[in-house]
Every structure is written in structure tokens, then in C-alpha cells.
Design brief:
CATH superfamily of the largest domain: Gcn5-related N-acetyltransferase (GNAT)
Number of strands: 12
Number of domains: 2
CATH topology of the largest domain: Aminopeptidase
Radius of gyration: 19 Å
Shape: globular
Number of helices: 8
Structural class: alpha+beta
Order of helices and strands: EHHEEEHEHEEHHEEEHEHE
Distance between the termini: 28 Å
Helix content: 25-40%
CATH class of the largest domain: Alpha Beta
Largest sheet: 12 strands, mixed
CATH architecture of the largest domain: 3-Layer(aba) Sandwich
Length: 296
């Protein structure tokens, strides 16, 4: 087994690895390549792959959270192919990742772990802080679409200006549940990381417009016949009107018309309103991960 820096040509193998580890994950090879190659310098990111018999069997990555105003927050991601676990691969990736964190000014690291990996994280100094639920739905079987309010116009993200989308996204994200506030997202970073991401299907993603203002939206990422609902949000002044339910319902219908047969999403356990919307849409829980943090 060899651990080395991830390369753009690892994208196809990484996409396959992620699907083997997380059956509900939606990451195309193009999205994996984008993740490897498009990083913000301030993240001071390290991305590693574990290779056994010329096969990518593990992933380990870390970097600073540059989307928050609170200094020192870092993220960690480590996963290993089910057929190659309990061989020391995860531990070896963890050692490299945490050694890197010690040299980039990180003060607190966050990781998400499946139920069978929580003990591993705890042994490495992490403490549970929250839960993230993953759910799937068949977009071909949906409840009746809600009506569109008279003052609202629906549009695909391919019909809007990225500045409109950035403004809505960053405002709606301010109270997104998490271990650090998302309150320092620059337009340039957002444009590269979100708007220009190859997995984002702007034609299937839906925005609710009030005049020239985007007031609610849902962003859809795709990989062949599967879709991932990334961020869904409503700006505070328009909450309580059912707009998140509306845009998600319309987006799922667009997915079904495009040949998507499986739609997936995730929600923090504390996000009751969005969990209720997804339950109404027919999403059923597939897995739960524990979010854990470690002081450094």
C-alpha cells in the first residue's frame, strides 16, 4: 500500500471509491477532478490517496475552512474502500492528515463519520457534536406540486446572474447549522467552488425570483441517473411561504424528466423545517453520520 498526493487523473477512481463507500453519494469523475484541482490557496489543502495493487482504495484530505470568519477551523475527510478496511490504511491517512494540520495553523478540526467509524474518530481525539442524516427519493413519485405565489417567478439557475445566486446563497447560509458560521465566503471563491463546478446542473436547479432578487433556490448536482440536492435556502424575509418546498418540488420534477431515477440529500439533525420538507417530498433516510470535532 502506498500513500501519495492525489492527482487529477485519480478522478475516475476517486468517484468510484466514493460511491463504494457512500452509496448515496453523487460525485461524477468531473466533480472529483474539480475537487482535486480547484482549491483556494488559503485552505492550505492536503489531498492524499491510498493505492493498493494499482487501485485507489482510500482518501484522506484536510484544509482550513476559508468560508468562516472564525480563525483556525479545519475540515478532515478520511474514507477507505470496504474491502480494504482494518489494514491500517485509515490510520496511516489520519497520521498524514493530522501532521499537516499541525503546520497550517489549525486550531479545531471537524470530521463526519459513519456509525462504524465513530470509535476510530474518538480514538483519534474527536468528540461528537452533531448528526447529519442522508436520505433518498424517487423523483418520479412525488406529491402534488405546490402553487407558485403570484409575486414569484420560477427560473432555472441557467437563467439567472451568478451575482444574484451568490447573494441568495450567502444570505441563506448564515444560519445553516454547523460548527462554524459560513459568513466569509468571497464571490471569487464561490464562483470557482460552486457556480463553475461541473457537477452543478443549472438547468435542473431552480430559483424563486421576486423581481430581480433571488429569494429561494435549490442547487442540483448530477451524475448520470442520480442527483444530489446540495444547498436549498430561502432568504429570511421570504421564509414561511413554502418557497423551499416549491423549488425542491419543481427541481425534482425536472430531474425525473431528465431521466434521473434516484435523488439524494443530507440535513443536519437540528434543521427541522428542511427535514419536514424532505419527508413530504418522499425522501427516506438511508444513513446517519456523526459530526465530530477535535481541538488541536
Amino acid at each position: 500500500m502506498d500513500i501519495r498526493l492525489a492527482e487529477p487523473d485519480d478522478a475516475t477512481a476517486l468517484s468510484a471509491l466514493r460511491r463504494a463507500v457512500y452509496s448515496y453519494s453523487v460525485m461524477s469523475p468531473a466533480s472529483a477532478r474539480h475537487m482535486i484541482t480547484v482549491r483556494t490557496p488559503g485552505e492550505k489543502c492536503l489531498q492524499l490517496v491510498a493505492v493498493a495493487d494499482d487501485e485507489v482504495v482510500g482518501w484522506g484530505a484536510t484544509g482550513l475552512n476559508t468560508w468562516t470568519s472564525e480563525p483556525g477551523h479545519a475540515w478532515v475527510a478520511i474514507y477507505v474502500h470496504p474491502g480494504h478496511r482494518r489494514q491500517g490504511i485509515g490510520g496511516a491517512l489520519s497520521d498524514r492528515v493530522h501532521e499537516h494540520l499541525g503546520g497550517i495553523g489549525a486550531q479545531r478540526a471537524r470530521i463526519f463519520a459513519d456509525a462504524d467509524a465513530v470509535d476510530f474518530a474518538v480514538r483519534h481525539g474527536y468528540e461528537a457534536s452533531r448528526q447529519m442524516h442522508y436520505a433518498g427519493a424517487d423523483p418520479r413519485n412525488l406529491p402534488e406540486q405546490p402553487s407558485t405565489p403570484a409575486d414569484i417567478r420560477l427560473a432555472g439557475l441557467d437563467e439567472v446572474d451568478p451575482r444574484q445566486a451568490y447573494t441568495a446563497d450567502t444570505i441563506a447560509s448564515l444560519d445553516e447549522p454547523g460548527d462554524a458560521p459560513m459568513d466569509a465566503v468571497s464571490y471569487e471563491d464561490w464562483l470557482k467552488d460552486v457556480w463553475e463546478a461541473p457537477g452543478l446542473d443549472k438547468g435542473l436547479s431552480v430559483a424563486a425570483m421576486a423581481g430581480d432578487e433571488m429569494v429561494a433556490f435549490t442547487a442540483v448536482e448530477t451524475d448520470v441517473d442520480r442527483a444530489w440536492a446540495g444547498m436549498t435556502g430561502t432568504v429570511p424575509a421570504y421564509r414561511g411561504r413554502g418557497l423551499a418546498k416549491l423549488v425542491k418540488s419543481v427541481a425534482l420534477r425536472r430531474c425525473a424528466a431528465a431521466g434521473i431515477t434516484g435523488a439524494y440529500t443530507s440535513n443536519d439533525d437540528s434543521n427541522g423545517p428542511m427535514l419536514a420538507i424532505n419527508n413530504w417530498l418522499g425522501y427516506r433516510r438511508i444513513a446517519t453520520q456523526t459530526g465530530l470535532v477535535r481541538p488541536l
